[in-house]
Design goal:
heterodimer; A: mainly alpha; Rna Polymerase Sigma Factor, Chain: A; Arc Repressor Mutant, subunit A; two-stranded antiparallel sheet; 67% helix; elongated; B: mainly alpha; Serine Threonine Protein Phosphatase 5, Tetratricopeptide repeat; 12 helices; 59% helix; 0% strand
Chain lengths: 205, 254
């Protein structure tokens, strides 16, 4: 069973959509794994509430899987656009206070496992990130703090610290890249959690 | 297209930061979403920005780094650049009278120290900081000491710096510059002790640089094995001194 699809980035081949339509549940795993991070990122950016974003991302993924099972996306290159459009519509609906129940009810029978990172995993990740942050060069950490927390532009940080704005940008990018790499390493090393989904099928993270 | 998005623009215009902070205009936000749904690197950047901001706002361990630490680290960067320029410059271009990096005088009757040249270092610069909190926490003795230090009068600086270091055993800044001044005035063994005291304070903005200069002190004392051991520790810190530490390690025997 193939559950090791790409983790974000690039378009998924349309075959995944066709496999889902044909009832191939492992293709649903690939789909969920591919889009869970980006859909959660979008939901969090739009809703600005982590718990709500987690629920919303789960709902969006379920909603798309239901649509794929019904064969509503068959064109190559349209899958990512469809996920994006679904995500935006769902979030717009949320703001319009429309009911979000139908899609959940529709899929609850066959999809019972979390498709996005749960709260415990998020806390573990944040703890690790905190440790990773301590491994950063103090100057880089301070640049990140001033820029990301205090919203100070690189030009101003440069003026305060005696560095050029370009150097500040480079150091910031390098620090973010390092954090990303360390977290990526964590993601690849953490034990895989296995969930039961539907008819005895397993889905692992 | 006005809102064309690519990785360069995401980095240059801080798109991920503004998106995560909710300040990106809607059209640009949508363009960025179209982009990161297909770009793993920009999705990773967005996640790093978002998570880093959360952790920095709510640190699990309350360890804050002040502007003083930042400015010092910036000054270290300048030292590093200066040292690199000095190292790369042809020797013939150094003007007469320019203060050379420190090289401990060879004691008469002692065999030549083969590592003395590698033990050279540029005096770390120090810049007075204007802090939001007001007074420099290291106090007036430290300031007087550093005034002399900046003028290259390390002997004059020492009594003030030592007083500042002794009055606050946890003041990494005073202890560090006392250690450096001791090295610069030829009291390498005592200087080494002060640099070890900085190290013993744990993680401070001075720890990495103190370790690096411990290695320099060991080299001045002719102990390449001890220098190697400290340099390995510096390189494992993955900080600003990593490259210099590795470069020095390559020149030392295994």
């Amino acid at each position: 069973m193939d559950v090791t699809g790409p983790s974000g980035g690039e378009d998924l081949p349309v075959e995944i959509a066709l496999r889902i339509e044909r009832g191939d549940r492992s293709a649903e795993d690939v789909f969920a794994k591919h889009f869970s991070r980006s859909v959660f990122a979008l939901a969090l950016a739009r809703l600005r509430n982590e718990d709500l974003a987690r629920d919303m991302a789960q709902e969006i993924l379920i909603s798309v899987i239901v649509a794929l099972r019904a064969g509503r996306v068959r064109e190559a290159g349209k899958l990512t656009g469809f996920v994006l459009a679904t995500a935006r519509n769902r979030i717009a609906n949320h703001y319009r206070q429309e009911s979000r129940k139908p899609a959940m009810e529709e899929a609850t029978e066959s999809i019972a496992a979390p498709l996005v990172e749960d709260r415990l995993e998020a806390e573990q990740r944040r703890e690790l990130l905190s440790k990773a942050m301590e491994r950063l060069d103090p100057l880089d950490r301070e640049i990140l703090r001033m820029n990301l927390v205090e919203s100070i532009r690189p030009e101003e940080i440069g003026a305060r610290s005696g560095l050029s704005a370009e150097t500040v940008r480079q150091r910031k990018s390098r620090a973010l890249r390092k954090l990303g790499e360390w977290m990526e390493r964590f993601q690849s090393q953490k034990p895989r959690r296995v969930y039961q989904i539907g008819e005895g099928r397993q889905w692992s993270t | 297209m006005e809102h064309m998005m690519n990785c360069d623009r995401v980095e240059r215009d801080e798109i991920a930061e503004r998106y995560a902070g909710g300040t990106l205009p809607e059209a640009e936000a949508e363009a960025f979403e179209e982009h990161y749904f297909r770009c793993a690197a920009c999705l990773a950047r967005l996640e790093a920005v978002r998570d880093a901001a959360t952790v920095l706002r709510n640190p699990i361990k309350s360890r804050r780094y002040s502007l003083a630490g930042m400015a010092l680290a910036a000054s270290l960067l300048i030292v590093f650049t200066a040292a690199l320029v000095w190292r790369l410059a042809p020797r013939g271009t150094q003007t007469a009278g320019t203060q050379n990096p420190v090289l401990v005088a060879q004691a008469p009757g002692k065999p030549a120290n083969p590592w003395a040249e590698l033990g050279r270092f540029e005096p770390p610069p120090y810049r007075e900081l204007t802090l939001r909190g007001g007074e420099n926490p290291s106090g007036s003795d430290f300031r007087r000491g550093m005034t002399a230090y900046r003028q290259g009068n390390y002997g004059q600086a020492l009594p003030f710096l030592r007083k500042a270091a002794d009055s606050n055993p946890r003041d990494a800044q005073s202890i560090f510059f006392t250690g450096i001044a001791l090295l610069l005035t030829g009291d390498t063994s005592t200087g080494l002790e002060f640099l070890r005291r900085v190290d013993a304070l744990g993680f401070t903005p001075y720890q990495e640089e103190a370790r690096f200069h411990q290695a320099k002190a060991h080299l001045q004392l002719g102990d390449a094995a001890a220098a190697r051991s400290v340099l390995v520790a510096v390189s494992e810190m993955r900080g600003d001194w990593e490259a210099q530490a590795r470069e020095l390690l390559e020149k030392l025997p295994r």
